């Protein structure tokens, strides 16, 4: 087989894999994981059921391949670019927030629905096997790798003196990603006609109160970390209420 034939064959195989992934993504999101059969996926992809199993050993492996590709190629790769090309901590946070919402909002948040579907499957996968420790859960490993970029942003910000050094990472991380995904279910979906502007506005609205909390000069003589966290939570709740009012209006 010559080089051109090998290239053509590889391209054909890759295209077939993409078609299987595309069909499975749409069916899992619309019909659910458990009610979608591999036969239906094969029909939608225009291949035999045996071909699906040739590429992916099981339906569970197929779902994981979809999420692995999404996390690796769209979330983590862009997060790595942000850390390499953007220097300021605040600018990094805004860029990470904007990319997170843009990626999850694509195709009417198809991937977010898949992540929610997979959480239930993943829990069954982990707890159904007594020898599979929770820390080895595939979706947890993917998520841990991704949110690690947020942690790096804060740690490097602390090292440069841009943010306070006593920041607790877990609550900041939960507020950051939780706020973004909550906003998608409220404000962003109600403004599909101006989605780009809405996404940018929401990223800015969320980063601003978090940034105020993180800044080194926010610590005063009588302030404590617990008090500042409560203040941050109140400000984020105010932002959420404001966005909901805008959406309803």
Automatic annotation (TrEMBL):
A Pfam family it matches: TetR_N
Superkingdom to which the source organism belongs: Bacteria
Domain (HTH tetR-type): residue spans on this chain: 14-74
GO-annotated molecular function: DNA-binding transcription factor activity; transcription cis-regulatory region binding
InterPro entries the record matches: DNA-bd_HTH_TetR-type_CS, Homeodomain-like_sf, HTH-type_TetR-like_transc_reg, HTH_TetR, Tet_transcr_reg_TetR-rel_C_sf
Keywords (A to Z) from UniProt: DNA-binding, Transcription, Transcription regulation
DNA-binding region per Swiss-Prot/TrEMBL record: 37-56
Protein name: Transcriptional regulator, TetR family
């Amino acid at each position: 087989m010559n080089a051109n034939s090998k290239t053509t064959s590889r391209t054909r195989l890759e295209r077939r894999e993409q078609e299987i992934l595309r069909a499975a993504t749409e069916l899992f999101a619309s019909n659910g994981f458990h009610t979608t059969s591999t036969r239906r996926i094969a029909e939608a992809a225009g291949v035999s059921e045996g071909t699906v199993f040739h590429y992916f050993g099981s339906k569970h492996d197929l779902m994981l391949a979809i999420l692995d590709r999404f996390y690796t190629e769209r979330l983590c790769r862009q997060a790595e670019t942000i850390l390499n090309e953007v220097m300021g901590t605040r600018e990094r946070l805004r860029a990470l927030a904007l990319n997170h919402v843009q990626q999850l909002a694509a195709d009417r948040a198809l991937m977010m629905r898949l992540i929610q579907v997979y959480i239930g499957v993943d829990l069954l996968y982990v707890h159904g096997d007594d020898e599979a420790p929770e820390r080895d859960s595939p979706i947890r490993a993917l998520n841990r790798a991704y949110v690690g970029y947020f942690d790096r942003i804060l740690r490097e910000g602390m090292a440069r003196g841009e943010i306070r050094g006593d920041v607790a990472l877990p609550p900041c991380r939960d507020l950051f990603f939780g706020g973004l995904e909550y906003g998608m279910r409220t404000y962003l979906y109600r403004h599909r006609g101006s989605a780009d502007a809405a996404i940018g506005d929401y990223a800015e609205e969320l980063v601003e109160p978090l940034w105020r909390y993180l800044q080194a000069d926010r610590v005063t003589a009588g302030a404590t970390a617990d008090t500042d966290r409560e203040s941050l939570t109140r400000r984020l709740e105010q932002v959420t209420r404001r966005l909901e009012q805008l959406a309803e209006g």
